[in-house]
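#struct-pred

JT: dropping the chains for the assembly here, can someone run the whole complex?
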Amino acid sequence: MNELETVYKKRYENYLQPLAEKLEKLLQEYFSEEQRIDRVISRAKSVESFIKKANRKVDGKQNYNDPLNQIQDQVGSRIVTYYLDDVQRIEQFVLKYFRHVESQDVVPESDSEFGYFGKHLVLFVPNELLDVAVSTETYPRFFELQIKTLFQHAWGEANHDLGYKPPWRWSSEDKRSIAFASAQAWGADMIFNDLYKKSLVMERN
Amino acid sequence: MITNIFSFLVHPGKGLEEQPNIGGADIPLNGRLFIMLEEIFDRSEYECKTEISFDPTDAGQQQNDCRDEIITLLQQQNIVVARRIAIRLQSVTTRRSGLGLFFLIIGQENNRQKALLSRFPADIGVWAEENLQTLRVEFLERVFMKNAMSYKAALYYGESFSSDFWDGYVVDRQLNTNANYWIKEFLLSDFKTTPAAGTKRLAEALKQAMNSIRNPSAKEEIYAAARLAYNLDGQSTSVDAFCNQYNFSQEARDAILSNIPIDSMRFDQFVFCVEEFQKRLPYRSIELDNGAVMTAQVRDFETCFIKEELPDTEGEYLFKTQGKIINELFRKRKL
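RK: done, full complex below.
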């Protein structure tokens, strides 16, 4: 185990896991009266995932030179909702209570590709969740919040499970199948969102 | 330890198409001025209590021009970069805010890089020189005073330029006025506590305090403050400032502050949001020993129920209300 792994493991056990639990509780409390929330979950990034990300290279260079401070999703939360139009509503609700430094729609690089879709926010960890007995240097300052539809969530979970495990490489056809599943999820989101909007109009009439 | 101090005379420049260049000075790290600035630098962590954070870009990206300039200043420590920050301040300074003397003090403490940006407002004064038999007095037009109401400062510190310096601390004695251009326009920042989060915290502390204390007069104080709070919409406050503003008794104050999750959070500044306050504290209820319960919206309770103290009783009241019956319910719980 290298030094980074040792430090992160200690942080993970002592601070990140309890912080993720407190954050989940806080977010669930905030969203208890909001409509069409399927689930609110939080997790601390596992030691394995952190080390993998910390060692990631871009164009042959280390992507992070100070991963303990630079990786902002050491604690991550996810809010899963029903329809695409709910994503913006939930984002606005989140930004009423949390200060953010980033808000991005994560989409595939090319318009003709299918893959990962989701709204990602980087938010300050609220002060009330910080343990006063612990130095702020030990705590992450930010956490990542993802807002996803049920279909985005379902595709993301399966893709993560399949993509992170194998020691082999998926074939081109396998990759196309994964993209096809994403396109199906994207289509389902569009259809349900349209039906939801139609239901609102019919309800008014 | 201070490593560099730069100073600029900043004129009002808001609305000008082109900002005039500003002459500046590299202040020597010795002498009486240095001693005064060193004291301000050392005390800044106690003085600058209001937490702020930089805004992302309009497109939601993790970048902020003012943060970039402060980091470049810390990295390069030269007057050219300091001047860019001074010109930014000039470009948002109105005539009403007037002339200011701007200091950028940079230093290091342990492994932390630290930057203090402070603006001394211009004032008028009288200079007096006493000789053995005479006194010579002169009118001075440009006197810069730290104790004036419009003194402002912003403090940033951190170790990593890539991940730190997203938040900082300010002192701004004009937070409640439109002059808070210092935070929004100059620093491209906002209070770290959002209006809804700060108001929720205050409302919950008031609610828990009301439910926990027994003394009727302390309860009355909290209710009166909650009712008056509806007039605070859009104003900057903190839980501590709120307690001072409504002059709570020690009992009521202690009950409110004991319901703030971390003591230092009572100083967190936020903009009061009446919508959130109403959402968190919508109703007031009074229960009598005869089994009656009266409930009405906090802001309307006193117009719904007229309260009269009954003479020759031990704290008994007569409540009167008038209106049309619009509903009648069986309830499982009294309150």
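JT: nice. Chain B has a mean pLDDT of 91. Chain B has three domains: 2-191, 193-281, 283-335.
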